[in-house]
Amino acid sequence: MYCPFCRNPDSRVIDSRTSDDGLSIRRRRQCPKCGGRFTTMETASLTVIKRSGVAEPFSRDKVISGVRKACQGRPVTDVDLAVLAERVEEAIRQTGQSQIDANEIGLAILGPLRDLDEVAYLRFASVYQAFDSLEDFESAIVELRAAHAESEPRDVTE
């Protein structure tokens, strides 16, 4: 790590702390040459392998932009989309893999998006899972209705 003040290639770690989200480490450093102090943030890299074989860094912004199209005209805020992207990233990191297929990211998006807005979920799923017919939509709707039936509280009065 180069010192941002004198460009010395060495620095000493004075303090290390985990960030609030627990996904990065904040390190306070001091340059032994000029005495300047600076902070670095370290995060574990997450690489996405696209269908073409190209590797690129994971980006929450790309998740948000992909889902935003499905959410057009729906009551979904930018904060909702940011939380969804965070949930997706957390789910991917919990796999323990540093490289993940783009397809797995799409699968990780489906659950949180279904919880957020079912119409947006259907839109996203129709593109992501390449729905070819009305039957594909019907089966997805049947699954949503079944999930609703399971999650609704039951009246157990006798």
What is the overall number of helices?
Answer: 5
Query: How many discrete domains?
Result: 2
Sum up the overall morphology in one term: elongated
Distance between the termini: 70 Å
Category from helices, strands and their pairing: alpha+beta
Low-confidence regions: none
Radius of gyration computed on alpha carbons: 22 Å
Mean pLDDT score, rounded? Answer: 89
Q: Main β-sheet, in a few words?
A: 3 strands, antiparallel
- Please bin the fraction of helical residues: 40-55%
Count every beta strand, where a strand is a DSSP E run of 2 or more residues.
6
Strand content: 15-25%
SSE succession: EEEEEHHEHHH
Strand order of the biggest β-sheet: 1-2-3
TL;DR of this structure?
With 158 residues, the protein is of the alpha+beta class. Helix content is 45%, strand content 19%. The strands form 2 sheets. Strands 1-2-3 form a 3-stranded antiparallel sheet, with no helix packed on it. The protein has a 3-stranded mixed sheet with strand order 5-4-6.
Task: Note down, in words, how this protein is organized.
With 158 residues, the chain is α+β, with helices and mostly antiparallel strands. The chain has 2 domains: 32 residues; 105 residues, no CATH class. 45% of the residues lie in helices and 19% in strands. The strands form 2 sheets. Strands 1-2-3 form a 3-stranded antiparallel sheet, with no helix packed on it. α2 crosses α3. It is elongated, with a radius of gyration of 22 Å. The model has no long low-confidence stretch (mean pLDDT 89). This is Transcriptional repressor NrdR. Keywords: ATP-binding, DNA-binding, Metal-binding, Nucleotide-binding, Repressor, Transcription, Transcription regulation, Zinc, Zinc-finger. GO terms for molecular function: ATP binding; DNA binding; zinc ion binding. InterPro entries: ATP-cone_dom, NrdR-like_N, RNR_NrdR-like. It holds the Pfam family Zn_ribbon_NrdR.
